Input
Amino acid sequence: LRDLLSGQQELRLEQLNSTFAELPNIMQLQLVPYGKASRRELPNKWYTFDCQHGDKECYGNLLQTCVIKYYPEPSQHLPLVVCMFSSRNPNRAYESCAKKQGFDLTALQKCVSGKEGNDLQLRFAEWTESVNGKGRLDFVPWIRMNGKDKMYDAFTSFKRTLCEEYRSMVNTLCTGDTPTTQPIEIPQACKVALS
Output
């Protein structure tokens, strides 16, 4: 998620955060802290990860991964990510941000330093590697809405893109020509994933 704050990107973490705050009921948000990393399996079945911006980025990804595991609701973990990245040194800000959120630092540190965190990071790696069929992202953040790549539109306006995708979901239900005897399931939210 480091590149969410890159000066070259129009999408800012604040834009994501404010949109989520305004429209939480139409967005199922999934943060995938992996980005343009690569992985290598070790003989002991652990993995080592190499990140585009080095070890600090990989460590930050791992911190976020464990927070997402233990605090799975975006309303819980997104404020921590925003807090971390509002600092010049996100990894250093992690502990104070986690305390501010009332998170259990002991459980989180156990996750970060243990096999659990490594396994969770592997799951995010596998998801990221599968997202575009190339095994690696071309750039980050990679934004998907309902399984469709939406990064170009979302860079221009995350909120507008989300609303258009949600309207599209509802319009598809309302304009279908085929009569159905089954109840129509109203979409609860647009599924948004960022890696």
Q: What stands out?
A: The longest strand covers residues 27-31. The chain has one domain: 2-194. The CA atoms of residues 153 and 161 lie 6 Å apart.
